[in-house]
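Next comes a concrete protein, fold included:
___
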Amino acid sequence: MVRLPLITLPLLLACALPALAEPPKGCIDVQVGQSRALAYDCLTQQLQGADPRAAKGLREQLDPVKQMQRRAPNQMGLATPAATSTRMGGSFGSSAMPQRP
């Protein structure tokens, strides 16, 4: 009868260790349809964390200026050479009046 508690003690410790472990450090974002809910509290904790390299990488990803620089010109409403040549038609490079309005 004395051996039963000695055998069950390691089993109980093995079962309790995953519950005592630290939770994963990833952030979970939820997207329903077109709307997206970001985990701002988790991102804030990561930005204030001990690893300055991770914080710098997150700041660069969340920087609106960097996001704007990565977008294509036609997504920002700017004219591209292909769109301009389609609009100008045969008069591209020879006239200021477009072939198509």
